[in-house]
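Need residues for this backbone.
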């Protein structure tokens, strides 16, 4: 049997409660944010628009969602 330890955290960037592995914010290099915001910051840093960030994150969610 495996212990299923789920650590919940609240992302300071978007306020979402998440239990995935946190990402380190690029803004100050010490704040832990949710994986989505980590992706957003990475995309933002290479000049991707907010609209495009959304569609990329949506694509990531779709591909990480376990297909049956
Ligand atoms: Zn977030």
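Answer:
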């Amino acid at each position: 049997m495996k212990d299923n330890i789920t650590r919940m955290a609240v992302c300071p960037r978007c306020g979402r409660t998440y239990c995935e592995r946190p990402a380190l914010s690029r803004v100050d290099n010490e704040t832990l944010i949710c994986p989505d915001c980590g992706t957003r910051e990475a995309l933002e840093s290479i000049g991707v628009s907010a609209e495009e960030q959304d569609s990329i994150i949506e694509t990531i969610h779709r591909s990480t969602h376990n297909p049956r």
